[in-house]
Amino acid sequence: MSLQRFQAFVGVESAPVKNEVEKGAIRKFADAIGDPNPLYRDEEYAKTTRYGRIIAPPTFSRTFDYGEIPGLELKREGLIHGEQQFEYFRPIFAGDVLYCSTKLADVYEKEGKLGRMTFLVYEQKGVDEAGETVFIARSNVIYRG
């Protein structure tokens, strides 16, 4: 896909997808990343903290379904994850229901040792049932077509 074709999708957002945050999923994720923090697994401990309940690790939002940007189709093979950034407005709590979406925020090209590379800048967002933004994640994906 050419830079010009990608540019037509800049600013286009997927329909929000409902994601339910389960404490068991948080615990499994914490186990998978090797983080023993009791905030991610022990309800009694979590009650004694400023959060008052189990929270998710910072990168847990990568497990959510963000939907698809309508019409934007590209091969997933050969994509390179270039960079990831998370901005949280509050923790993700066990029991949260979050509506997550993604959009292509920017696209640009650079010339590298192996030729031309297209950089896709995605922005994922999670909004709670009250309509408040809980987090925004930004990622750069390198597409070599």
TrEMBL record:
InterPro entries: FAS1-like_DH_region, HadA-like, HotDog_dom_sf. SUPFAM superfamilies: Thioesterase/thiol ester dehydrase-isomerase. Pfam families: FAS1_DH_region (PF13452). Residues 8-135 form the FAS1-like dehydratase domain. This is Acyl dehydratase. CDD domains: R_hydratase_like.
